[in-house]
Specification:
Elements lengths: L3 E3 L9 H4 L5 H35 L4 H27 L5 E2 L2 E2 L1 H18 L5 H11 L4 E3 L20 E3 L1 H5 L5 H26 L2
Parallel strand pairs: 1-5
Antiparallel strand pairs: 2-3, 4-5
């Protein structure tokens, strides 16, 4: 018996508690407002983190690892900003071509894996790498047998025979609203900068 990979909207049945799409307009409006609040607060936090990172970068212009880390991060964050703009225009459908990944979806996974692998080369901390992997891995997600239980991040990339899995983008983006997806990416951008800030604080003493 093989593991099963889901690529269609059927996975949304196990995520009803996350979607906030109960059919009630008022509840949906409240959810959309909350996502915007999260985005606004994250943007402030991102701004403050960026200020501190800039100071550290300016103080360590001769440190090659610092410059490489910051360059990689800036490029990846610019890419995520492009994805945000594309979602605003076309919704999460940009990631898919019917039941398969679109070129945008495939590129999204490639960019995440490449950024993660390059940053891992710059740190010797096992714990740091664990958190980086938790944030950036694009492994398929195991769908719990109980629909009331939320799935966990498959950080180890393991699959269990007989269990049902959803591809990363299907699980986190397919069928969700623009605001939900934007909040998800926005939160990822904040976490990326938090890791860079930590790296700089520990590396630049």
């Amino acid at each position: 018996m093989k593991s099963i990979i889901l690529t269609s909207n059927v996975i949304l049945a196990s995520m009803v508690l996350l979607s906030c799409e109960s059919g009630a307009d008022k509840a949906q409006s409240q959810c959309e407002s909350m996502y915007q609040i999260i985005i606004n607060e994250n943007d402030k936090h991102i701004s403050y983190l960026s200020e501190n990172i800039k100071i550290k970068i300016d103080e360590n212009r001769n440190n090659q690892n610092v410059i490489i880390y910051n360059s990689l991060t800036n490029d990846y964050l610019d890419y995520l900003s492009e994805i945000e703009a594309a979602i605003i225009k076309g919704g999460t459908a940009i990631f898919f071509d019917e039941y398969e990944y679109s070129s945008v979806g495939k590129e999204f996974e490639v960019k995440a894996k490449l950024y993660k692998s390059e940053i891992e080369k710059l740190s010797s901390s096992v714990n740091f790498k664990k958190r980086l992997n938790l944030l950036l891995n694009t492994n398929s997600i195991q769908i719990p047998d109980d629909p009331m239980i939320l799935a966990e991040n498959n950080e180890n990339g393991r699959t269990v025979v007989g269990k049902v899995y959803a591809f990363y983008l299907d699980y986190y983006f397919r069928g969700f609203s623009k605001s939900q997806s934007l909040a998800f990416i926005n939160n990822k951008k904040r976490a990326i900068l938090e890791l860079e800030n930590e790296f700089l604080l520990n590396f630049c003493k």
